[in-house]
């Protein structure tokens, strides 16, 4: 385990806190967050959308689309079906909005 390092406000832009990680990691992480903010990406809004969106597990996606498991994964390999998001190390789910958008696109032609 890495010994706790006192992080200064200069490194993170927040009050000093103890973190059990190395300082270079914090600098890279802070710089990437700062860069996203500079590009106009609202990280809080993105998180809100992900949390607000209902996530469907594979059996629910199969029921909603009428596709089999093998067809779903075959279409994903051809980039013709939305990819799932990881919930945990082993569990994945599809955002309901992406599935509904895919169904609407298919219905439109």
Describe the structure.
The chain is of the alpha+beta class. The longest helix has 16 residues, at 23-38. The protein has six helices and five strands. A hairpin with a 5-residue loop joins β4 (85-86) and β5. Strands 3-5-4 form a three-stranded antiparallel beta sheet.
SSE topology sketch:
Elements: E1 5-7, H1 9-12, E2 17-19, H2 23-38, H3 43-52, E3 55-56, H4 58-65, H5 69-77, E4 85-86, E5 92-95, H6 96-108
Antiparallel strand pairs: 1-2, 3-5, 4-5
Number of domains: 2
Order of helices and strands: EHEHHEHHEEH
**Helix vs. strand class:** alpha+beta
Which parts are unreliable, with pLDDT below 50 for 5 consecutive residues or more?
A: 11-30
Q: Name the quaternary structure.
A: single chain
Number of helices: 6
Total count of strands: 5
Main beta sheet, described? 3 strands, antiparallel
Average pLDDT reading: 74
